[in-house]
Amino acid sequence: MNQLSQALQRIAASRTTAMTDRAFELRAAGRDVISLSVGEPDFPTPPHVVAAAKAALDAGDTKYTAVMGTAALRAAAALHFARDLGIVVAPEQIIVSAGGKQAIFLALAATLDPGDEVLIPSPWWVSYPQIVRYAGGEVIDLPTSAATGFRIGAGQLEAAITPRTRWLLLNSPGNPTGATYPAHELAALGEVLRRHPQVMVLSDDIYAPLRYTAGAHASLAAVCPDLADRTLTVSGVSKSHAMTGFRIGVSAGPAWLVAAMGKLQSHASGNPCSISQAAAVAAFTGPQEFLKEWCERFRARRDRVLSAIEAIPGLSAPVPDGAFYCMIDAAPLMARFGDDEALALHLLEHGVAVVAASAFGGRDGFRISFAADEAILDEALRRIAKAVV
Ligand code: GLU
Fold first, then answer.
1. Burial class (CB in 10 A: 0-12, 13-18, 19+), 66
2. For a Cys staple, 381 with which of 56, 161, 305, 308, CB 3.0–4.6 Å?
3. From ligand 1's centre to the CA of 35, what distance in Å?
4. In the chain, what are the domain boundaries?
5. Cβ atoms within 10 Å of 58's Cβ, excluding its own
């Protein structure tokens, strides 16, 4: 008997993690598959972070912590928000969760009622619309294209807001397009938001340290401090410090909202892993210089991938300004393959796991992660070229 809730039936499983699981399975069965499907840095976790995790274990730091996160990590996260994002918050306005994904889930589940509208620029990260639907909200798609750098504008935002609009989800640098909002564009969005006090903003800044354009990162709550009391800024260590498996996200927002998220977390999972929290303290408070070198490597890989893509007939890709994904347009190949999911499966057969653009609310293409070793990227692109000739 199917006893699934209506909420569960409104959503589909994550297509990024599903494709990655499929690549794991195929590899376990002896197939030679390169996975460019999941977004995680291939660099090893920095040694000082690993040492902090080991020290935590040795010190017996293996018990419950406060549900909202340890005092040490909330203080370290406050330092991170001020230093890296320009957002000054007290530790009491911060919640630590099991990855940024859990924070987004908690925030939306804690605030949405049936019929509430959530504005999401597309292409979007796979989990945003699914979490909104699970929480009972209605997804309002704000489509973007390469022509606008995959960013929304003030007019588009104004036209989409209704009295039922509860949230705007912003992601800069964005997954899957790498779209990165400059401060003046955030200021223009802020002007619109000031006229609509019912709209909160979830600013997902998880890729902030991974940018390939000059200048400082711009985050909404820093650009428009008067909107900070209705902005939740989500960050973490997964992408910046190659700590995806540690599952630590940190979010800063109004005290009432983080307290509500904590209430839900107290029943859903309790505190995030104690060892991971100790490691995240080291990540935020330790040396950050390695990030410059990582960004240089990512930028070189991005350029390597883009030139290889341009050389493959039928494929093209805009230049991503941040994060480590290329959203590849394969429209000219659709007549041959049917749709982008069929193309992704075809590429999997040829030994490369990618994620179809439709998983992100896009179409006729696929996303690859270029957070992989140069030799692996070269081989993956050779396989892709061979698969589509
Ligand atoms: N955020 C990463 C991605 O888009 C990790 C997988 C996931 O949680 O979606 O690939």
1. middle
2. 308
3. 13
4. 6-44+290-388, 64-285
5. 9
What is the best residue among 11, 15, 16 to mutate for testing ligand 1's pocket, by most ligand atoms within 8 Å of CB? 16
Residue located nearest, by CA, to atom 4 of ligand 1: 39
Tens digit of pLDDT at every position of the chain (389 positions): 689 999 999 999 999 998 888 899 999 999 999 999 988 999 999 999 999 999 999 999 999 999 999 999 999 999 999 999 999 999 999 999 999 999 999 999 999 999 999 999 999 999 999 999 999 999 999 999 999 999 999 999 999 999 999 999 999 999 999 999 999 999 999 999 999 999 999 999 999 999 998 889 999 999 999 999 999 999 999 999 999 999 999 999 999 999 999 999 999 999 999 999 999 999 999 999 999 999 999 999 999 999 999 999 999 999 999 999 999 999 999 999 999 999 999 999 999 999 999 999 999 999 999 999 999 999 999 999 999 98
Residues in the chain: 389
Q: Which CATH class is domain 6-44+290-388?
A: alpha beta
Q: How far apart are the CA of 39 and the centre of ligand 1, in A?
A: 5
Query: How far is 198 from 170, CA to CA, in rounded Å?
Result: 16
Neighbours of 337 (CB within 10 A): 19
